[in-house]
Specification:
The complex is a heterodimer of chains A (about 220) and B (about 800).
Chain A lengths: L1 E12 L2 E13 L4 E5 L6 H8 L7 E6 L2 E2 L5 H11 E4 L11 H11 L4 H14 L15 H13 L5 E5 L7 H16 L3 E5 L3 H4 L4 E6 L2 E4 L1
Parallel strand pairs in A: 3-8, 3-9, 6-7, 7-8
Antiparallel strand pairs in A: 1-2, 1-4, 4-5, 9-10
Chain B lengths: L1 H7 L8 H22 L1 H29 L11 E4 L1 E4 L5 E4 L5 H9 L3 E8 L6 E5 L2 E5 L2 E4 L3 H4 L4 E4 L10 E5 H8 L8 E3 L4 E8 L12 E4 H7 L19 E6 L5 H15 L1 H4 L2 E3 L2 E3 H6 L8 H43 L4 H38 L10 H27 L3 H6 L5 H37 L9 E4 L8 H9 L4 E7 L9 E2 L3 E2 L10 E6 L3 H4 L4 E4 L11 E5 H7 L8 E4 L2 E9 L14 E5 L6 E6 L4 H15 L8 E2 H7 L2 H35 L1 H9 L4 H35 L10 H28 L2 H7 L1
Parallel strand pairs in B: 7-12, 9-11, 20-25, 22-24
Antiparallel strand pairs in B: 1-13, 1-15, 2-3, 2-14, 4-7, 4-13, 5-6, 8-11, 9-12, 10-11, 16-26, 16-27, 17-26, 18-20, 19-23, 21-24, 22-25, 23-24
C-alpha cells in the first residue's frame, strides 16, 4: 500500500542538524494493523504525519498507492490524502461549533457529495457507532470516549483505505480505551489498513505488527 | 495509478453545482451564526462598530451622491450651459457673474446658430410676495420669472396644460404639482386665477415637482411678461428686452449638437459692445458654464460647494475604512482561537478555496447584521443629521439609485473586510495549526499599523474639530469695534415711502433707547463701487470701496471710535461730507485725510473724520475700505436699540404699523446679533457635523482597541500568571499590558500632528481673522486621546491583572 525508503527529516538549530527521522524504511501492505511505539520525542507522531502527508520530509522516497509522494506538489498531495486517508487524534479535534451529525458530515460536504447520499452515509455511521441519540449534541456535551467515537466516525465517513491514529486512547480511561481498540480491530478485519501511534503495550497488542522507534530510527521491524 | 480511477467510482454520484453551492452556503451560514452567538462580546463590538460606520457612511455618501448627481438628470444635460459674464473689476482682477443682461438671449435666439434653445430666468429670492387665491393668502419667496423656452432646455415635465407652451399668452404662471395642490387642493388648477399685489394671473400649466437633485427649485414660475410689465426702465433702455445695463437674468442655453460655445460667446460679446459701448471696455467674455458645474463650482471656476462635498466624501471613506479595519483586526486577533478549527477542516478535506469561501460568508453574515443595525441607526441619526447639517434632503428608499449606492458601499466593505482574513486564515498549514505553532507574528505588525492608521484618522479629526471650534469662538467673540447688542433692524425700504413716518413714530416710544438709519443692513451684504477719486491718486489706481449712507447719529449709535476729525453730528448739512475708515485712509495713502476732497459715486465732498476700523461683514473677509456719507433722506433701514425685555413690545408696535401698509405680507425685522451669528451658520453647522464625525471615529477606534486588548489579555494569560507568581503587582501588570496599545496611540498622535498642522493652516486661511495653532492645544488634545485609550484598554488589562494566577496557569 505504501513504502517509505530512506526517509530523513531534520531541523537545523544553530550549527547542529537535529534529526527527527533518520533513514526510515517502512513498507505497509493493505490490511495491516501497525502500532508505532517508542519513548516521547522518538519521532512517532512525525512519522505518522509524514505518512499522512500532513508533514514533509527532507530526503528519501515515499510511494503511496503507486504514487511517488516526494515528487508531488502540495496540492496533489493534499488531494491524495483527502481521498484515501482518515485521521484520528488523541485530542479528538472535533469542531466545537458543529453538532455530532455535522462533524461527521463535513468531509462529505467538502467532497461535493449529494445531500441525499450524505444523509444515508451519516445515518449509517451513527447507527454503526450507536450514537444516533447524540447526533444533535455539540462535542462539549459528550464524554471523551463518545467524542473519540465521533472522531473515528468522521475519519471513516469518506471510506478511507488507510486510518492513521495518533494515540487515539491517550485521553481516555481504560474501559473507553478498550472499546476504541476493539473497534479498530473490527475495522481492520473489514479491510481498513490502520497505523496507530501508542504508548501502551496492551494497545499495541491489538495490531498485527509493532514498529519501535528511537531517536527517529526504526529499531526493529 | 490504475487502481485510483476505479477507486474513485465508489464515491457515488456527485451533486449538481447548484445544490453543491446551497449545501455549502447553508453549512457556512449555520457556522457563522453559531460563531456570532458563541462570542457575544466580540460579535457586539464588531456589529456595533461596523453598523455605526456603515450608518455614517450611508448618510454621508448618499448626500455626496445627491450633490454629484445635481442637475445631471436632464436628457440634454451635457449640452446645457449657463451663460456667465466676466469683466474687469479693477486692480487687474476679474470677476465672473452668473447673470447676464436680458437682451442677450433674444440676440442669441435670432443670430447664433450654434445655440438650439436659450431661455432667461430671473430669481429675486428673498423678496417675499403674497399670493392671493379667493380669500386665502400664501407667502412665497421662491418665485422665478421665465419663458417657454426654459421647458425645451430642461426636463421639467408638464403634467397639465400645453406641454409645448406652458405659459399662455398674457400673464400666466406655471405651478409645480405641490404648489398647485397647496393652492387648489384636488381641483384642476389649469385656468384658475391667482393674484399678486396688483396683478392677476392665470394658471396655464402644472409641472412635476422639481426633483431633489435639481438646483433649480421654485414654488412658482411666473411668465417673463410679468417682469416686462413691471420694468420701470433703465436710462435709455425702456424695456427688459432692451436693457443691456442690468445683469439680472440667469441665461441657460441648449447648444446644438456639435455647436461651438466659443463662437456663441464671441458673438455675444460683439453684440454687447455694440449695444452698450460704455461697458465695452470692462467686459471681457461671456463664458459658457456647463450645467453640471453650476451647482458645484463658483462662476469663476473655483471650487464652491465641491469643497464641502469632497471633504464629506473623504470623511465618509475614512469612517468606513476605520470600521472595516476594526473588523479585520478583531478577526485576525481572534484567529488564534480558530486555528485549530482551520487545521481540522483542512485535514478532513477542506480546500483553501472552500475555507476562503467560509470566512467570506462569515464576514457577510456579520456585515448583514451590521447593515441592519446601520439602517436602525440611520433612522435615529437622520433627523439629527438634517438638523445639524441644515440639509433637508429626504432619502427616498423607493429609489433604486439609492440602493445602488448602498449596495456598492456594502460590497466594497465586504471585499475590504473579507479578503484579508479569508486569505490569512485559510493559508495556515494544518499540522502546525493543530500543534498551536502559529503565532501570527507577521500579522501583528499589520494589525498594529492598522490601529495606528485608525487613530491617525480619529485624532486628526478630533484635533481639527478642536481648532475649528476655537476659531469659531474666536471670531464670534472678537471685538468688532461696534456695539450690536439689542439692536433690531427694520427694512423700511419695503414700507413704500412710509420709512420716515415709521422712524418718527418709534423715536417717540419711551422704551426705544436710540435710533439711527442707513442705506444698508449691517452683516447682510454691503454695496461697493469703484471710481473713488482723490487728490494725488495715481492714474492706474482703482480702489473699490464700500459705501454707506447714514444719518447724524450712526457713529454714536454703534459706539464706533472716531480716530480723528469730527462726527456728522456736529456739522451742518450742505455739501456731502465723508467719514472714511482707517483701511480706506491706508489704501489711499492719505497723510492728512481731514479736509481732503474726494469724489465718489457722483458726489464731491470733504473728509471730515476717520473712524477706527469696525466690522460690518463676516470675519471671514478682511475689513474693506469704506466711505461713509451723511444722508438722512429716505431711510432704507432703521436701526433701533431697545432693552431686551422691551424688544417684543417694539416688534408688536411695528407689526401694527406694517399691517396698515402691507396687510398681506409678514413683517420683516432682524436682531443684529442674529444677523452676525448667521454669517457663520455654514461653519457652525459644519463644525457640529465634524463633532459627530470625530466622536464616531474615536468611538469606533476605541471599540477596536477594546477588542484587541481583550484578545491580547487572553493570549497573554499564561505570561500574566507566571509574572504574578513571580511577584509582579497589579498596577505593574496592567501597565505592561496597556503599554503595547498606548504606544500605538502615541505613534498615531505623532503622525497626526503634522497632518493637522498643514490642514488647519490651509483651512484657517479661509478666515481673514484667525487663531494661531497653539502647541498646548495639541498637547492637551493628545493627553485626552491617550487617556481615552488608557481607559478603554484598562477595562481588560486590569481584569487580566487581578485574575488568580493559579487558575490561568492550570488551564494551560
Amino acid at each position: 500500500m505504501l513504502e517509505l525508503k530512506g526517509i530523513y527529516k531534520w531541523v537545523n538549530s544553530g550549527n547542529n542538524r537535529l534529526f527527527l527521522l533518520k533513514d526510515v524504511d517502512l513498507s505497509v501492505q493493505p490490511g495491516e494493523f501497525i502500532s508505532i511505539m517508542g519513548p516521547s520525542g522518538s519521532g512517532k507522531s512525525t512519522l505518522l504525519n509524514v505518512i499522512g502527508m500532513l508533514d514533509t520530509f527532507d530526503q528519501g522516497e515515499f510511494t503511496f498507492l503507486h504514487e511517488p509522494v516526494h515528487k508531488l506538489k502540495e496540492k496533489q498531495r493534499s488531494s491524495l490524502y483527502k481521498q484515501y486517508i482518515g485521521f484520528v487524534f488523541q485530542a479528538y479535534h472535533l469542531i466545537d461549533e458543529l453538532t455530532v451529525y455535522e462533524n461527521i458530515e463535513t468531509p462529505l460536504i467538502y467532497q461535493d457529495i449529494k445531500s441525499s447520499e450524505r444523509k444515508a452515509m451519516v445515518a449509517d455511521m451513527l447507527d454503526r457507532f450507536q450514537i444516533v441519540g447524540k447526533k444533535d449534541l455539540f462535542p462539549t456535551q459528550l464524554s471523551g470516549g463518545q467524542q473519540q467515537l465521533v472522531g473515528i466516525a468522521r475519519a471513516l465517513i469518506a471510506k478511507p483505505r488507510l486510518l492513521l491514529a495518533d494515540e487515539p486512547t491517550g485521553n481516555l480511561n481504560s474501559k473507553q480505551g478498550e472499546e476504541i481498540m476493539g473497534l479498530f480491530k473490527e475495522l481492520n478485519k473489514e479491510g481498513v489498513t490502520i497505523i496507530q501511534v501508542t504508548h501502551s503495550e496492551k494497545n499495541a497488542g491489538y495490531g498485527s505488527r509493532i514498529i519501535n522507534l528511537l531517536d527517529g530510527m526504526i529499531q526493529n521491524n | 495509478m490504475s487502481s485510483g480511477s476505479s477507486l474513485r467510482c465508489r464515491k457515488g454520484g456527485e451533486a449538481t453545482p447548484l445544490t453543491k453551492i446551497t449545501v455549502m452556503l447553508r453549512s457556512y451560514f449555520k457556522i457563522a451564526i453559531r460563531n456570532i452567538f458563541k462570542n457575544r462580546t466580540y460579535s457586539f463590538i464588531n456589529i456595533a462598530g461596523l453598523g455605526l460606520g456603515l450608518a455614517t457612511g450611508f448618510i454621508m455618501l448618499l448626500w455626496v451622491n445627491n450633490e454629484y448627481s445635481m442637475n445631471r438628470y436632464h436628457k440634454h444635460s451635457d449640452r446645457i450651459y449657463q451663460v456667465n459674464a466676466k469683466f474687469k473689476s479693477g486692480n487687474g482682477e476679474t470677476q465672473v457673474w452668473e447673470t447676464t443682461p436680458a437682451p442677450i438671449a433674444l440676440f442669441a435666439r435670432q443670430n447664433i446658430s450654434d445655440i438650439e434653445q436659450i431661455a432667461r430666468l430671473r430669481s429675486p429670492f428673498g423678496l417675499k410676495q403674497a399670493v392671493k387665491i379667493d380669500n386665502k393668502i400664501f407667502i412665497e419667496d421662491k418665485i422665478g420669472y421665465t419663458e417657454n423656452e426654459l421647458f425645451k432646455i430642461f426636463d421639467f415635465p408638464v403634467i397639465a396644460g400645453n406641454p409645448k407652451e406652458p405659459f399662455a399668452k398674457g400673464l400666466s404662471v406655471v405651478l409645480p404639482e405641490s404648489t398647485a395642490k397647496k393652492y387648489f387642493g384636488e381641483d384642476d388648477p389649469v385656468g384658475k386665477v391667482l393674484s399678486f399685489r396688483d396683478t392677476t394671473v392665470v394658471v396655464s400649466a402644472v409641472i412635476k415637482d422639481f426633483p431633489a437633485n435639481s438646483s433649480l427649485q421654485y414654488s412658482l414660475l411666473v411668465s417673463l411678461d410679468m417682469a416686462k410689465l413691471k420694468f420701470r426702465g433703465n436710462g435709455n433702455w425702456k424695456t427688459v428686452d432692451q436693457d443691456w445695463g442690468n445683469y439680472d437674468y440667469s441665461t441657460y442655453c441648449l447648444l446644438k449638437k456639435g455647436g461651438n460655445i466659443q463662437n456663441a460667446s464671441t458673438a455675444m460679446l460683439a453684440e454687447l459692445k455694440k449695444a452698450n459701448p460704455q461697458a465695452a471696455g470692462d467686459m471681457l467674455d461671456f463664458p459658457f458654464r456647463p450645467l453640471k458645474d453650476v451647482y458645484l463650482y463658483k462662476a469663476d471656476g473655483t471650487k464652491g460647494r465641491l469643497i464641502m462635498v469632497e471633504i464629506f466624501f473623504l470623511v465618509a471613506i475614512f469612517v468606513l475604512l476605520i470600521a472595516s479595519i476594526n473588523y479585520i483586526n478583531l478577526v485576525t486577533a481572534r484567529s488564534t482561537q480558530r486555528i485549530k478549527e482551520i487545521g481540522i477542516r483542512k485535514i478532513i478535506g477542506a480546500a483553501k478555496r472552500q475555507l476562503c469561501r467560509q470566512f467570506f460568508i462569515e464576514t457577510g453574515v456579520l456585515l448583514a447584521l451590521a447593515t441592519v443595525t446601520a439602517f436602525l441607526l440611520m433612522n435615529l441619526l437622520m433627523p439629527v443629521y438634517q438638523q445639524v447639517s441644515g440639509n433637508t434632503t429626504a432619502y427616498d428608499f423607493a429609489n433604486w439609485q439609492l440602493w445602488k449606492v448602498l449596495g456598492a458601499i456594502v460590497a466594497v466593505v465586504w471585499l475590504l473586510t473579507g479578503l484579508y482574513p479569508a486569505l490569512l486564515l485559510s493559508s495556515f498549514r494544518p499540522i502546525e495549526s493543530l500543534k498551536g505553532k502559529i503565532f501570527l507574528s507577521s500579522t501583528g505588525f499589520i494589525r498594529k499599523s492598522l490601529v495606528v492608521l485608525q487613530f491617525v484618522v480619529s485624532i486628526t479629526l478630533v484635533l481639527g474639530t478642536v481648532f475649528i471650534h476655537r476659531q469659531l469662538s474666536y471670531i464670534q467673540n472678537k471685538d468688532l469695534n461696534i456695539n450690536t447688542s439689542n439692536v433690531i433692524v427694520f427694512p423700511t425700504w419695503k414700507m413704500k415711502g412710509k420709512g420716515n413716518d415709521f422712524k418718527n413714530e418709534i423715536q417717540r416710544l419711551s422704551y426705544v433707547q436710540d435710533i439711527t438709519v442707513a442705506d444698508m443692513s449691517l452683516f447682510d451684504g454691503a454695496n461697493s463701487s469703484g471710481g473713488l477719486d482723490w487728490e494725488g491718486k495715481a492714474t492706474n489706481e482703482n480702489i473699490t470701496a464700500v459705501h454707506m449712507d447714514v444719518d447724524k447719529n450712526f457713529m454714536q449709535f454703534f459706539h464706533t471710535d472716531l480716530k480723528e476729525g469730527t462726527d456728522f453730528g456736529t456739522i451742518s448739512s450742505g455739501s456731502p461730507n465723508f467719514i472714511l475708515n482707517e483701511t480706506a485712509v491706508r489704501k489711499m495713502a492719505l497723510q492728512k485725510p481731514i479736509g481732503e476732497t474726494i469724489r465718489f459715486r457722483g458726489d464731491t465732498g470733504i473728509i471730515i473724520g476717520v473712524v477706527k476700523d469696525f466690522h460690518f461683514e463676516s470675519l471671514k473677509k478682511e475689513i474693506r475700505p469704506t466711505v461713509i456719507k451723511y444722508n438722512a433722506e429716505a431711510p432704507e433701514f432703521v436701526y433701533a436699540r431697545v432693552e431686551q425685555r422691551k424688544a417684543q413690545q417694539l416688534i408688536n408696535f411695528t407689526e401694527k404699523f406694517w399691517k396698515q401698509i402691507e396687510p398681506a405680507l409678514p413683517l420683516e425685522y432682524a436682531f443684529l446679533d442674529d444677523e452676525l451669528a448667521r454669517q457663520y451658520d455654514k461653519e457652525t453647522r459644519a463644525s457640529h457635523l465634524f463633532d459627530a464625525f470625530a466622536v464616531i471615529t474615536m468611538f469606533i477606534s476605541c471599540l477596536g482597541l477594546f477588542g484587541l486588548a481583550t484578545y491580547s489579555a487572553e493570549r497573554r494569560v499564561k505570561e500574566i500568571g507566571i509574572r504574578k507568581v513571580l511577584g509582579a503587582g497589579t498596577t505593574r501588570l496592567a501597565s505592561l499590558l496597556s503599554r503595547e496599545f498606548i504606544i500605538l496611540v502615541v505613534i498615531a498622535i505623532v503622525i497626526a500632528i503634522p497632518i493637522v498642522w498643514i490642514g488647519m493652516t490651509r483651512l484657517l486661511n479661509y478666515f481673514a481673522y484667525r487663531i494661531s495653532l497653539q502647541w498646548w492645544v495639541f498637547l492637551a488634545t493628545s493627553v485626552v486621546a491617550v487617556s481615552i485609550a488608557v481607559i478603554t484598554v484598562s477595562f481588560q488589562t486590569i481584569r487580566a491583572a487581578v485574575a488568580n494566577p493559579v487558575k490561568s496557569l492550570r488551564t494551560e
